[in-house]
Every structure is written in C-alpha cells, then in structure tokens.
Amino acid sequence: MAKRVRVMRMSVEQPLWRALTGYRVLTMLYAMGLFVSQYDTYDRPRIAVVYYVVLFVWTLATLPRVQNAAACTKRFLAADLSVALVGIVLTPLAVNEHHIQTGGPTLPSIWTAGSVLAFAIKGGWRWAAFASTPVAVANLIERGTWARDTVHNVILVWVASIAIGYVVEVARASERTLARALEIEAATRERERLARDIHDSVLQVLAMVQRRGAVLGGEAAELGRMAGEQEVALRTLVSGGLLPVSRISEDEAEGAVVRAVDEPEDSSGPVDLRALLAPYASAKVNLAEPGAPVPLPPASARELAAAVGAALDNVHRHAGEDARAWILVEDEPDEVIVTVRDDGPGIPEGRLAQAEGEGRLGVALSIRGRLREIGGSAELISVPGQGTEVELKVPKVSRGKAGTR
C-alpha cells in the first residue's frame, strides 16, 4: 500500500503580513479621525477630504496585495509609497502655518509607516532603508526646517523599519535551516528503515551464500566470496561508510535464519500480536503468550514482530544451531512487553559497541531502531555463559512516527 505523506509548509513571515493588513486599516481610520478632531487647523480642508477619500479607497482595495509576499509586487510597493509621499507633500497646502510649526501630523500620519514596513517584510532591511529615505526627505520638505521632533520621527521610522527588515531576513534564514533539518531527519529515518529491511533480508541471504559457498568449495566458493564482498559493500552503504569495502567479517558470514512472517491483510484496525509471533514458534523456540488477544496498532505490531525476528536471528547466528530460545508475551494495561531469552554463551562486554562501529547494525537498527520508531524501548541483558535476554516494550497507543504514518 502506498504511503501518503502530508507536508506542511511553515511561513514565519505570514503573521507579519496579517499584522500589516490590520495596521494599514487601523492607521487609515486613525488619520481620518485626526482630521476630524483637528478640522479647525485646516485652511483648505477640501484638499484633505479628497486625499482621505483616495486613501480610504486605496487602503481597502489593496488589502489582497498585502496578504503575502507573492501578491506584494514591486509595482504595488512603489505606488503605495507614492500615495504616502503625496499625502506628506500636500500637508502644507491643506493646513495652516501654526499646524506645521507645532509639529502637527501629516495627512497620512502614521499610515506612512505601513508602506515602509511592506518594503521591509518583502525585501528585508535594504528595501526598508531604500523606502525610508524618500519618506524622510518628504517630511523635511513638509516641515521646511530641521526641527528636532521632525528629525526624531525620521530617525525612528528609519531605524524601526530597518530593524524589522533585518528580523524578517533572520526569520527567513531560520526557516530555511529548519526546513533543511527536517529534510535531513526524514532522510535519516528513511535510511534507517531501509537499513533494517536490508539487514533482515538481503544481508542475511548474502552471508548465508558466502558460508555455504565456502563449505561446498570450487565455483561455489568463488560465488560465496563475491557474495561476501557485496555484503560488506552493502553494509557499508547502509551504515554510512563505517567500513572499508575490502574488509570482510568472518563472524558475520556464519549463517542466518531468514523467516517470513505473514501479516494480516486488513491493517485498518488493531492487530493481534499473537498472530504475528506464532510463526516464530518451533521445536527450539518456545512461545508463551496470553490466552486473550494482544491488540496493537498495525505499524507497532509489525515493527515489534520484526524486532523479535531480528532477536531470534541473532540467537541462531551467534548462539549456535542447537541453542534454544523462549518468547514471553506480557499484556500490561498501558504497554506490551515481549521478552526473548536464549541459553547461548552470552555476549562479551563491549561486543555490541564494537559490532556497531564495524557496521553490523542488527541490534542498533533491527531491534532498537524499530522500537524507537514506534515510541518503545529495547533493553538487552547478557551475562557471558548465561545467555542473552532482550526485553522489548511497546506502548499500546503508539507515540512514534511509524505508528502515525
């Protein structure tokens, strides 16, 4: 069955566009409110009325333009900034001298900052600096002098817009870094999944061919040698290049047991774990399970059964053909515990770390990796001369990514 992967794109700047949309509407209403409250200071109010009608229509008509970066084109930004600049320059024609000398607001008032912020969100701090410059010149022309409050307002708009533009650039860079990290994580997980599948099938078959070829001799020995080289090359590939290709491990070629587990066709609901573990029972493998079904999510049940199979493969390969194994299934209220125990010679201390460093990732990927994917855990206890015990714990409600795919 093909898997459907849902990809969600994040946009750290989208909230800024929504905030800018609200800012433009509110500041347009604020500018018109100032005009009404200071009507007496206007010598030619008709000029202001005409401008505010244009500003009102322009602001509402261009709301779709400030919804996202794609809609906010360079042509729109230039036209929007022109509306603000015209309003600033028209202010001396509409108000009296006292209004200007006392530092009264321009016709667009703080609506002008919205035009500059659009530049900042669209193109970063350089665009913001570019848009702030004509606004500063227009304010100085409107005032007619280098008054302290005018210079203060100009610098404030300049610094604020550049700072916001810089923040937007940093946010975009962080978003790209996060997207790349998520891609690497997804690729790593897929690589681990493929490595587990390869370890459970192809690598074990190649190891068996190498062993049997060495026993038969002749042309079969040459075929076994080539199979061994391919095993090492493939193992190096899935383990990230931990081994040189020319190195062939003898103890990995001692043989393997490849076992197929029949899975229920209907995987839409919970799966009885006992049905997946039943094929593992044999004359040398004793299976002890509850009398009632052990339901698990399909993905969790399959991964747990595969981990049990990997543990049994390790028993047959490293404990010998005569080794016996026991599988104990415990159905707890919140989790399922499966214990695989054998009567082999055990694992020498430090052997697992050495094997993982050499690229033999059976325990790391086929057992621990599978359990980690479904939110479970695997604990291995081995005492030399007293066998090995692997305890696998899986929550009944999958917390791993494999259970949600």
Automatic annotation (TrEMBL):
Signal peptide: none annotated. It is an enzyme of class 2 (transferase). Keywords: 4Fe-4S, Cytoplasm, Iron, Iron-sulfur, Kinase, Metal-binding, Transferase, Two-component regulatory system. It is found in: Cytoplasm. GO terms for molecular function: 4 iron, 4 sulfur cluster binding; phosphorelay sensor kinase activity; protein dimerization activity. It catalyses: ATP + protein L-histidine = ADP + protein N-phospho-L-histidine. Its cofactor is [4Fe-4S] cluster. Residues 299-398 form the Histidine kinase/HSP90-like ATPase domain. Pfam families: DUF5931, HATPase_c, HisKA_3. Its main location: cytoplasm. Its EC number is 2.7.13.3. It comes from the Bacteria. GO terms for cellular component: cytoplasm; membrane. SMART domains: HATPase_c. The keyword Nucleus does not apply. Member of the two-component regulatory system NreB/NreC involved in the control of dissimilatory nitrate/nitrite reduction in response to oxygen. NreB functions as a direct oxygen sensor histidine kinase which is autophosphorylated, in the absence of oxygen, probably at the conserved histidine residue, and transfers its phosphate group probably to a conserved aspartate residue of NreC. NreB/NreC activates the expression of the nitrate (narGHJI) and nitrite (nir) reductase operons, as well as the putative nitrate transporter gene narT. PANTHER family: NITRATE/NITRITE SENSOR PROTEIN NARX-RELATED (PTHR24421), OXYGEN SENSOR HISTIDINE KINASE NREB (PTHR24421:SF61). This is Oxygen sensor histidine kinase NreB. The lineage of its organism: Bacteria, Bacillati, Actinomycetota, Actinomycetes, Kitasatosporales.
